[in-house]
């Protein structure tokens, strides 16, 4: 493992599974496959820029609180940095650094000209009013004003953020530079240059990957039993699209609990129920209650963890009954659990492939913004589907040629493209 100067900065993450160490392990495996030069590997193992800012916020009751915000820019050898902005209490610099690195490989894997970045603020959005969240977002954006921009680093939504936060970021940036700059963020509302299809894009990409994986086994989506952990931007959209395609979504969960119906849940009704029920699926009429732990162990064809990292670990991996695990979230399967699944012959479709639909449509949004030509949803979905299907088959081919698991194949493709670009550009100065 290549040592990282990030390591001394913080104590290990709460689950004692360091996400940055995990990310480096996957990079190391790919580097081995590629016989990567040690110097090149050292460069790719470190983020290029790490920014931590204090965010003082005046709460509605007059008190002042100071939050910690981060933005990590991993590697911009292929193009501007790109990555989501996460609002969650467990956000740490190590986690953000790991996610920034994942973004670099993901963009390279699907062939879009971006480098990886990620941002986040350690907070529980549910504890703040909308006005407080707006002040927090605007101050965070202002602190990062010199580090972001359409040609520098383009944030997008992630856990705990949505088009609303992107609109605040776009407005704050635009006010600071003196003119409207829609291209500074993606995942923004359509009224200010957002792309049609962006909201469902990550979930749509997940559905496409599930469809391709089932087709590889001679099956269609119709009747496939699917379990989904997480019912937000990604899990919610994947559930809707898989249900529309005829799959039986038998269980879903969110942070408050889960619901199960062996005959398949009525996903549109569940979606409407969850929205009315403070974004909770708990208590959905006609379904049985399940905990998140029980949900991961349900019998199904496809298990889709679409919430947070480290959900399938060495503690619960033996309970997983699915034949296919699709990582819609980033890093939901730990390194040890990944090996255990591989040994049992369970197919794991890795995050950098499975959830790339979001960044692909973010890229299409950026392209539309730069060209001032806006496409209909059909075109956006088609362009995304082409890139996703192509990436899926390249990963399968690479896996067969190298006789390695899909994750190693995906990393080898992503890391290989970045390493090649770095070698071609040369090390400055
Ligand atoms: P979100 O905040 O919209 O939704 C997260 C969902 O997970 C919510 O339903 C929440 O209640 C649930 N959840 C939280 N903690 C949970 C727990 N302990 N157990 C079960 N459910 C829990 O977030 P999102 O944007 O859907 O992101 C989900 C994952 O997908 C993250 O790993 C994110 O990095 C990744 N991702 C998101 C995008 C995107 O476009 N939004 C793109 C690529 C990857």
Automatic annotation (TrEMBL):
GO terms assigned for molecular function: oxidoreductase activity
Residues forming coiled coils: none
Pfam families given in the database record: ELFV_dehydrog, ELFV_dehydrog_N
Alphabetical UniProt keywords: Oxidoreductase
Domain Glutamate/phenylalanine/leucine/valine/L-tryptophan dehydrogenase C-terminal: start-end pairs: 195-426
Top-level taxon of origin: Bacteria
SMART domains cross-referenced by the UniProt entry: ELFV_dehydrog
Family the UniProt entry places it in: Belongs to the Glu/Leu/Phe/Val dehydrogenases family.
Protein name: Glutamate dehydrogenase
């Amino acid at each position: 493992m290549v040592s990282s100067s990030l390591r001394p900065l913080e104590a290990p993450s709460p689950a004692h599974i360091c996400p940055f160490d995990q990310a480096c392990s996957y990079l190391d495996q790919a580097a081995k496959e590629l016989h990567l030069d040690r110097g090149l590997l050292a460069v790719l193992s470190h983020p290029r820029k790490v920014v931590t800012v204090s965010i003082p916020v005046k709460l509605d009751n007059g008190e002042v609180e100071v939050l910690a915000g981060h933005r990590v820019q991993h590697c911009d050898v292929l193009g501007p940095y790109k990555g989501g902005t996460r609002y969650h209490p467990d956000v740490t610099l190590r986690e953000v650094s790991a996610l920034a690195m994942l973004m670099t490989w993901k963009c390279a894997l699907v062939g879009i000209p971006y480098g990886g970045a990620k941002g986040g603020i350690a907070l529980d959005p549910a504890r703040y009013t909308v006005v407080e969240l707006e002040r927090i977002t605007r101050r965070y954006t202002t602190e990062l004003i010199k580090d972001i921009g359409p040609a520098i680093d383009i944030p997008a939504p992630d856990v705990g953020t949505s088009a609303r936060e992107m609109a605040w970021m776009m407005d704050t940036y635009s006010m600071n530079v003196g003119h409207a700059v829609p291209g500074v963020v993606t995942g923004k509302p359509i009224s200010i240059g957002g792309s049609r299809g962006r909201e469902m894009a990550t979930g749509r990409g997940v559905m496409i990957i599930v469809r391709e994986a089932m087709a590889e086994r001679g099956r269609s989506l119709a009747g496939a039993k699917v379990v989904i952990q997480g019912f937000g931007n990604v899990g919610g959209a994947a559930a809707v699209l898989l249900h529309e395609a005829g799959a039986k979504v038998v269980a879903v969960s969110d942070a408050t609990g889960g619901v199960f119906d062996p005959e398949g849940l009525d996903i549109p009704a569940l979606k409407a129920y969850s929205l009315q029920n403070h974004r909770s699926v708990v208590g959905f009429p006609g379904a049985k209650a399940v905990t998140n732990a029980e949900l991961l162990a349900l019998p199904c064809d496809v298990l889709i963890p679409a919430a947070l990292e480290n959900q399938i670990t060495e503690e619960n991996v033996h309970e997983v009954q699915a034949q296919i695990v699709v990582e819609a979230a980033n890093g939901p399967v730990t390194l040890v659990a990944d090996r255990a699944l591989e040994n049992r012959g369970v197919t794991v479709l890795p995050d950098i492939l499975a959830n790339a639909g979001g960044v692909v449509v973010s890229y299409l949004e950026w392209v539309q913004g730069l060209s001032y030509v806006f496409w209909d949803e059909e075109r956006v979905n088609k362009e995304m589907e082409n890139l996703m299907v192509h990436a899926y088959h390249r990963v399968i081919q690479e896996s067969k040629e190298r006789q390695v698991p899909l994750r190693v194949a995906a990393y080898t493709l992503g890391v290989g493209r970045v390493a090649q670009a770095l070698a071609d550009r040369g090390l400055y100065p």
